[in-house]
Amino acid sequence: MRIACVGGGPAGLVFAISMKLRDPRHDVVVLERNDPGDTFGWGVVFSDQTMDNLRANDPKSADAIEAGFAHWDDIDVHIHGRTITSSGHGFVGIGRKRLLNILQDRARELGVRLEFKTEIDPSPELFGAYDLVLACDGANSKLRTAFADHFEVDIDIRPNKYIWLGANKAFDAFTFAFERTEHGWIWAHAYKFEPNASTFIVECSEATWRSFGFDKMSQEETCRAAEKLFAGCLDGATLSTNAKHLRGSAWLNFPRIVCNTWHRGNLILMGDAAHTAHFSIGSGTKLAIEDAIKLADVLHGGKQLAEALAEYHAERQVEVLKLQNAARNSTEWFENVDRYAALDPLQFTYSLLTRSQRVSHENLRLRDKQFLRRVESWFAGQSEDPPPPMFAPIKLRELEIANRVVVSPMCMYSAVDGEVNDFHLVHYGARASGGAGLIFTEMTDVSADARITPGCAGMYHRKHVTAWKRIVDYVHAHTHAKFALQLAHAGRKGSTRVPWSDDPLDKRDYTDVPLESGNWEIIAPSPLAWSADNAVPREMTRADMDRVKADFVRATLMGDEAGFDMLELHCGHGYLLSSFLTPISNQRSDEYGGSIENRLRYPLEVFEAMRAAWPKHKPMSVRISATDWCDDGLTPADSIVIARAFSEAGADLIDVSAGQTTPLAKPVYGRMFQTPFCDRIRNEGRVRTMAVGNIFEPDHVNSILAAGRADLCALARPHLMDPNWSLRAAAELGYKRVDPPKQYRAAYAQMQRNIARKAMEQA
Q1: CA within 13 Å, CB half, 411
Q2: Which of 247, 330, 649, 752 is least surrounded by Cβ atoms within 10 Å, i.e. has the fewest?
């Protein structure tokens, strides 16, 4: 094959080497616009996996690269005058120029032609002269740009400003240095790549950048200013730039590049031309090298070119998306440093280390057991035998909760005329016995016409108090769990069928499907139907508002009579009070519509009335949908306003969910997908929060809590399938200070032994 690699960076050079190694007959040329000694950047970071891939591909170049590596294990975080160190991370770095020289020499040795100072423009002549043209010309790829519509290029320019500098000092650890200035927070990412040299990336928000005057400084002036800012970690070292080719200050904004398609005819995108990953996770070179090796593999797999390129794209796109998702998490963490700067330095460091979700709680334990013990001791407030964060107690008002694991509210649709029954006794009793510190009732409605379905639980009749008290008394008598009552009104989502049919052959989902008969009137802030298939609700009058508020107060008093430990007001998921909060469903023109303050007014009136009726020593929470997942809907910023308002009115906890407020929503699912909203509300709103949403592993719970992203974690489906989820988690973590029901102690001990034995076998 005749092959042209446009771009002489790691992607193009590794691909050229790889093709020659597989078949020396290939005619391969690397076309690079710069001189062979030019490089813009300082050092690059490799993972062990990338080195393994390089070695398997070409042991000779791997040996040369490895010989030039700088190694380190520690991460140092400097903030608030303290340095927190975590070890066991195993980084390797090499100067970009040295890396390129090694790859250039190896390419020449194998017969690859290297043509420097060669500008390439997309043209029919270029594509006609070669069987394959590789666009590995970086994030600003001319070849990709020429066919941007075909490649379906999505470029997201991130807001933070950053600059690549070099320091004449070798940092012993990968160093993050955070400095608070009168202009805002500024920080550095620093790592060595040679015995006396380190990459030194300075980053800050654009507002801080402008306020500091960096936008008006020359590169030299920027270096001197940064030396003063980071004098504490530079220890007299100086900073310099190798970006003299750039006009002005050389500060940049990172472009997140995603291409839906990676090839067009015989043109293939590779490396940064196809995708970018933020420098804060150091994976750009890794992705480029692994792209190159994979493409060389598929081209020699005996398939036709089109089929081989499709395989390359399909496999690499999955791996790239994984890293880009991690990079997005990392990028957004650094874009919101202000959010986390108030955390204790130890927790701040933990949050930084776990920011991408690639490093979890237990992964940190493997890397640095001592560091994690410090974190757990700090979190639990005890130095001797600290529990994992999920098993640390928490107090809400006078309510002592044994741990941070919560059984989330889950509708069972199994009540009769609002009355819970034996099913509910077994359901809640089993989950209360399973080790969770706090369990919630399902959404419990404050009147018959407040129900979603005829199967919904209620708290509006004397028989409801009696039925619920039976369950509450059982939980208190036989378990250590605390029991919370969630109260709600369905609003425009009411008068619908239960989600399933009694016909075992009918597997259809009947969620939000109107009743075939026996419908009741539904009300809402505005006369807007949930969907075209649902009834149009009547717009609430002042009398309706007063009646519904009274219903909530009555249910509150009944909840206290039934013996519940805690009360939650449901203001999420598109139900009545949620419908007031979101502009999607609230189009009122009176004092209850329009601004977020007006839309908050009625839900706050209801909450304040409930808070006044509920005993002062008992806590209350509010569930909200932090976003509508659609344009022109409720925003995360709105949700901070909402959370603060409820907190000021006496809420002790904000239960942060998302969506389900409109059928037009387009949620972005994934593990812990709602936790970022919870994190933002907690750390910007300065309120206690509970995270929920696709949290299903103990590692998830511990990571969320230890990082300060939430104060409690609610799990729904995991508890549906395993009532003993918390007990099992304790056994898996080797945490022994749990007390299962005495009737089950022997079984729990056996589970502990089995888990320990399995772990030893797998070690």
Answers
A1: 23
A2: 247
Q: What residue has token string 């299903």?
A: 696
Residue of 664, 627, 659 whose CA lies nearest to 643: 627
Determine whether 736 is exposed, middle or buried from the number of CB atoms within 10 Å of its CB (0-12, 13-18, 19+): exposed
Domains 2-335 and 393-723 share a fold: no
Distances (CA, A) of 152 to 139, 149, 248, 688: 15, 5, 31, 42
Is the distance from CB of 530 to CB of 514 less than 8 angstroms?
A: no
| Contact criterion met (CB below 8 Å) for 78 and 232 | yes
C-alpha distance from residue 488 to each of 448, 462, 472, 610 (Å): 11, 18, 19, 12
Q: Which amino acid is at 747?
A: A
In the 3-class helix/strand/coil scheme, how is 527-584 assigned residue by residue?
CCCCCCCCCCCEECCHHHHHHHHHHHHHHHHHHHHHCCCEEEEEECCCCHHHHHHCCC
How far apart are alpha carbons 642 and 656 in whole angstroms?
A: 11
User: Angle formed by the axes of helices 10-22 and 284-299, to 10°?
Assistant: 30
Identify the sign of the CA torsion 343, 347, 350, 355: negative
Give the SS3 label for residue 369.
helix
DSSP structure class, residue 291: H
CA atoms of 485 and 296, how far apart (whole Å):
60
- The structure tokens listed for 133 are 């043209």
Q: What homologous superfamily does CATH list for 393-723?
A: Aldolase class I (3.20.20.70)
Domain ranges of the chain: 2-335, 393-723
Domain covering 2-335: architecture: 3-Layer(bba) Sandwich (3.50)
Helix (H) or strand (E) holding 730: helix 725-733
Tell me what the mean pLDDT of segment 109-117 comes to. Answer: 95
What digits encode the pLDDT tens for the residues 415-468? 999 999 999 999 999 999 999 999 999 999 999 999 999 999 999 999 999 999
Interval 222-238 mean pLDDT: 96
Active site residues: 575
Distance CA 323, CA 317 (A): 10
Tens digit of each residue's pLDDT (9 = 90 or more) over 153-176 = 999 999 999 999 999 999 999 999
